[in-house]
Amino acid sequence: MNKDFAPYLARIEEEIHKALPKVSGKEWQDTVFGQLYPAVTADHISPLITPTRSLVDLGGKRWRPLLLVLTAQALAEKDGGTKDPSSSNKFETACHLTPLVEFTHTASLIHDDIEDSSDTRRGQPAAYITYGLDTALNAGSWLYFAATSCIDTLSSTDEALKARVYALYNMELRRLHLGQAMGIAW
Q1: Residue 158 — very low, low, confident or very high, per pLDDT cuts 50/70/90?
Q2: Which residues of 14-36 are buried (b: 16+ CB within 10 A; e: fewer)?
Q3: pTM for the full predicted model
């Protein structure tokens, strides 16, 4: 990919890794799950993180989050901002929301592989083959919801903005599944 995108892609990876760490700490758990009962252990959380994180770690081009970030930067510049992306609130908000885009895509890939009985994804066995159908299905479904944690943790105190992002996300999830239903019927 174009080297000009390298700083953007590095920032995207940083946000993705913050939103879905390899090891879940208490702060992350509280953000994603709220306060958990003491009986919940890492062994209960791992079947959610491990399959999803494995697919995220296999890479991909990150076109979707890159498009989000570049669009935010272009809009910030159009509104009279500087070319320094870090000085733009729109850019920072877009960066923070990149896991929403990438995790939705990742969850859809896990489900798509199950629906299509695909053997591989990105050169590796599909998640349902590696982790089992039940774990992959649950992890993929969970990731759709876990992705919304980045909306909850936006630094913006504009609750109307958060509500609008939630509404748009939910509409697009419904459309994503309609598209998949159309693909299955085809």
Answers
A1: confident
A2: ebbeebbeeebeeebbebbeeee
A3: 0.91
Instruction: Provide the CB-side half-sphere exposure for 120 (13 A, CA).
Output: 4
Of 61, 15, 35, 50, the C-alpha closest to 142 is 50
Q: How many CA atoms lie within 13 A of 86 on its CB side?
A: 3
The pLDDT score that the predictor gives to residue 85 is: 57
Contact 99, 154 (CB under 8 A): no
pLDDT band at residue 120 under the 50/70/90 scheme: very high
Return d(Cα 141, Cα 136) in angstroms, integer: 8
**Which CATH number covers residue 132?**
1.10.600.10
Q: Are 28 and 85 in contact (CB under 8 A)?
A: no
The pLDDT tens digits for 6-38 are 999 999 999 999 999 988 899 999 999 999 999
Angle, helices 159-185/89-116, rounded to nearest 10 degrees? 20
Total count of domains within the chain: 1
Q: Which domain holds residue 41?
A: 3-185
Which of helix, strand or coil describes residue 3? helix
